[in-house]
């Protein structure tokens, strides 16, 4: 990450000249229009939204923050809302629908035509975070026996309704996906060429219940604009576009960041989340780790005699347990991220373990060298030896725990990102305390 | 992140039937062809690559891992390499060029036509991680006074060479960007319509030295396929496509993950990185934090008398300093990620501080309640009181440090992600030790 600077279009302020505002309304990107509306008091937002010409009105509405969208949906006249919802992209309106109460959903559906009603019901039924949940039904389809000319004529007619016509999908009479073709190939082809002679006959596709992260990875891997979604019988049921996949990937990545710091997933903006929400998302792991830390307390209690005899051992306690936890956090984060990007897969674990042992040995030895003179200074040669040896061992233990935990969690079907720094630190602490005072007790012949 | 599963196309194994292999070579996506080649011994890879038909050969070559690409580039005959490089996308070949030694660069340039030579020299000259470094020169341009029909005819001729023709850029005679138009608008327009009557006359654009992360954010914000890059005079010099922006964003995000765990940025795959590289990327912060931890050691030494009088205080030391560090890591990670996605900007800091204080108070109080009975059990009511009170205070201190550090770093032009968990933990430790033993000394009237 580099220095923060979001470069947005020029959004007119409250004191802008009427001409500038009119210009802005006519030419601005929907994303900028939405940002402009969100700055207004609610009543004015309502009014300005309805003043926009219809296709722009629906697109701008889709770009509002979800909570603003929901609030507006509640305030708008039923006919005004129906007009907007009918023009929205299929996936965006299904998202809105899922945020409404059952009564509001019924009211909304009653205002719509049968086709939109069925579409919303279908799209809103898929499990969250799957291909089905983020796909849209705005795609163009062709038959294999059309000519390039017929195909272009068809796309001309349906284009305004479709989210992307740059790739059309070729279906057989049972609606099974048998090919795909890019718009520029149609334009370049001889007009009487048959579609099945020029289409890509082996298009990649995903299943309805495929995880959204896998879908996003596939789009990135093949540099696609969209990937088709098929049901169990191979019938085309939707497409996931690259921008929706990127949004899903960003949300998943944010979740990984939060989990690595023991913050439970939440979908709101961190800026708008209430104190209660943030408290709830943070308190679980913090409190749980209190119990984990009690084992280290018990370990220390067991070595009470050693501590009373050599109180200088305590000086190095925070340093040793932190170093172990820090090395472990490094390993855990490297693995969690590599598993998320697909850089590392499960079978790599064996190869990585040996390498990790050698890296951790080198890291531990370096840190032991750094801490040795300080041990000499504060506790004498014996303490320095105990601290140095402990450092090597706890850095190795921490690294191995950090490296292995994400794989273990993944193996048991859990999210590798649960292998958070704090969890690794807590485990390393318990081991670290036992190692430290055991070595001390032995070396100092207590 | 969910359970790891990369869904790739079916890549034939070493024992696949020759017919299946032939089928695969003819129909597979270049990304899959590249993955297939990478499984082979070097000589065979070389041979199979040259057996691919030319446009697919260049695309497949571009999809190889960069180190494989460089190695192959060194082994290929100069004429074979020139043939491939000429057909590569402008941005991909500039990336390869930047990985070669100066001698190899000269050799490569000598094999190319003047046009490609100039293009490579120009693209490879821009600073890393800027729009200039990830842009490509494969875009289509139109003049404002063309008709829609003329424009489509022009695109038909130039299309095979261009990375994306779905949006063309409209230039004035000085090559200044004055508009953009999507392919489907051209197709839908009346054939004699002038371009300047139907183009978007206010397209967003980025500057050559804009940060690649800002470019990726802009593409996501406006749901673009590509964003044009202009020089200081407004002349179009390239475009950044959505897939290259997504790759850049993924690299930046990985860097953030690593930095948050004190691993210095590195560009290789974690699987292929050598022991030496990983050691170097991890040792700096680990060793530096050893020094940080010495302050907590000095703090403990100062309170030696208190410890000797109440050794049970030591039992709770790992718990208290870990809790402070964990709460701090949570806050730091929430802020680092929110700053990276643009969810939070600098001016939000003031509002967030007050909320954070209240959240941390609630978290600290909860954790104090959890730890209080354990304090009673192991040390009696006075120790329990000291531990509980310390818990509230250190969780608040940790949270405030974690929240503020990313903003402070950003303010001084540094990367907020440097506010790693371990750094926050180390700072919180020092404060925690002082708070803990100060309270103990006062309450226990030592």
Describe this structure in a few short sentences:
Two copies of one chain form a homodimer. Chain A has 446 residues and is mainly α.
Fraction in beta strands of chain A = 5-15%
Side-by-side strand order of the widest sheet of chain A: 1-2-3
Measured distance between first and last alpha carbons of chain A: 51 Å
Detail the poorly predicted runs of chain A: 1-9
Please state the structural category of chain A.
mainly alpha
Radius of gyration of chain A, rounded? 30 Å
Biggest protein-protein interface? A-B, 139 and 138 residues
| Helix content bin of chain A | 55-70%
Largest β sheet strand count, sense and barrel closure of chain A: 3 strands, mixed
Overall 3D shape of chain A: elongated
N to C succession of SSEs of chain A: HHHHHHHHHHEHEEHHEHEEHHHHHHHH
How would you name the oligomeric state of the polypeptide chains in this document? Answer: homodimer
Helical run tally of chain A = 22
Determine the mean pLDDT of chain A: 87
Number of strands of chain A: 6
Task: Walk me through this protein's architecture.
Helix content of chain A is 65%, strand content 7%. Chain A is mainly α and 446 residues long. In chain A, the strands form two sheets. In chain A, strands 1-2-3 form a three-stranded mixed sheet. Chain A has a three-stranded mixed sheet with strand order 4-5-6. In chain A, helix 16 runs parallel beside helix 22 and helix 19 (317-341) runs antiparallel to helix 22. The radius of gyration of chain A is 30 Å and the shape is elongated. Chain A starts with 17 loop residues before the first helix and ends with a helix. The interface between A and B is large, with 139 and 138 residues.
């Amino acid at each position: 990450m580099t220095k923060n600077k979001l470069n947005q279009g020029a959004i007119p302020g409250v004191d802008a000249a009427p001409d500038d505002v009119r210009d802005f309304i006519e030419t601005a990107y929907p994303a900028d229009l939405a940002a402009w509306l969100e700055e207004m008091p609610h009543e004015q937002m309502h009014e300005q939204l309805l003043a926009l010409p219809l296709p722009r009105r629906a697109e701008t509405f889709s770009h509002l923050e979800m909570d603003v969208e929901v609030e507006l949906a509640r305030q708008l006249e039923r006919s005004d809302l129906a007009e907007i919802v009918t023009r929205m992209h299929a996936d965006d309106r299904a998202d809105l629908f899922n945020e409404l109460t059952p009564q509001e959903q019924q009211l909304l559906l009653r205002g719509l035509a049968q086709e939109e009603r069925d579409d919303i019901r279908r799209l809103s039924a898929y499990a969250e975070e799957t291909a089905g949940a983020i796909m849209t039904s705005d795609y163009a389809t062709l038959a294999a026996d059309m000519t390039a000319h017929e195909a272009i004529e068809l796309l001309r007619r349906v284009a305004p309704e479709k989210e992307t016509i740059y790739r059309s999908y070729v279906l057989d009479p049972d609606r099974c996906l048998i090919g795909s073709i890019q718009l520029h190939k149609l334009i370049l082809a001889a007009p009487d060429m048959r579609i099945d002679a020029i289409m890509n006959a082996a298009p990649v596709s995903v299943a309805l219940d495929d995880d959204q992260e896998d879908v996003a990875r596939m789009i990135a891997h093949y540099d696609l604009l969209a990937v088709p979604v098929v049901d169990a019988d191979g019938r085309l049921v939707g497409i996931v576009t690259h921008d929706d996949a990127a949004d899903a990937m960003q949300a998943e990545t944010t979740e990984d960041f939060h989990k690595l710091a023991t913050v439970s997933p939440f979908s709101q903006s961190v800026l708008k989340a209430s104190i209660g929400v943030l408290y709830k998302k943070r308190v679980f792991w913090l409190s749980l780790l209190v119990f984990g830390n009690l084992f280290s307390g018990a370990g220390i209690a067991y070595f009470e005699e050693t501590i009373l005899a050599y109180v200088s051992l305590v000086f190095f306690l925070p340093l040793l347990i932190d170093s172990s936890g820090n090395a472990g956090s490094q390993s855990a984060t490297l693995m969690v991220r590599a598993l998320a990007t697909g850089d590392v897969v499960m079978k790599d674990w064996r190869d990585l373990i040996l390498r990790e042992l050698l890296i951790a040995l080198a890291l531990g030895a370096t840190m032991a060298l750094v801490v040795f003179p300080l041990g000499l200074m504060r506790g004498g040669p014996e303490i320095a030896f105990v601290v140095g040896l402990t450092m090597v061992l706890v850095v190795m233990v921490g690294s191995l725990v950090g490296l292995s935990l994400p794989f273990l969690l993944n193996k048991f079907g859990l999210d590798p990102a649960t292998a958070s720094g704090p969890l690794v630190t807590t485990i390393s602490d318990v081991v670290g305390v036992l190692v430290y005072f055991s070595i001390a007790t032995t070396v100092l012949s207590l």
